[in-house]
Amino acid sequence: MVYLRGGPCNGERKPDSDIVGGLVAYVKCSDHYYTNTGTKRPNGDLIFADSGTAAPSAGSGSSSYAPNVTHSWSSVQNSVNAHLPSALHRIEYAMRRNLQQLSHRRRVR
């Protein structure tokens, strides 16, 4: 089910079959369009919020699920490429030093 928030259909529930649209999913009720907020109610209903009387389009550059996904992904890539090699080198160095120290220690029986 879909829960409509705001506008003239505030609080109404619609079946999932009323969802239309391609990249931007929406439900039309009383000449208003409701778009997916990406959240759910405790009972599992998707929450669709009132977005006015103009039909939503994918050309707006925003997504209801992840508005800055490309920026976030590039940040993750930069972080991994910058920090992971040096972290792996430090781990390898520490393991090698620990193994060298263990080889010089006396065994306890």
Short description:
The chain has one helix and five strands, in the order βββββα. The protein is an alpha+beta fold.
Estimate percent helicity: 25-40%
Average predicted local confidence, pLDDT: 84
Task: Find the structural class using helix and strand composition.
Answer: alpha+beta
* N- and C-termini, Cα separation: 68 Å
Largest sheet: 5 strands, mixed
The tally of beta strands, per DSSP, is 5
Radius of gyration: 26 Å
User: Can you tell me the number of structural domains?
Assistant: 2
The H-and-E topology, N to C, reads as: EEEEEH
What is the number of helical segments per DSSP (H or I, 4+ residues)?
Answer: 1
What do you see in this structure?
This protein has 109 residues and is α+β, with helices and mostly antiparallel strands. It has 2 domains: 54 residues, no CATH class; 42 residues. 33% of the residues lie in helices and 22% in strands. Strand 3 and strand 4 form a beta hairpin. The longest helix is centred in the last third of the chain and has 36 residues. It is elongated, with a radius of gyration of 26 Å. The relative contact order is 0.13.
Key features of this structure:
5-stranded mixed β-sheet; 1 helix; 33% helix; elongated; 5 strands; alpha+beta; 109 residues
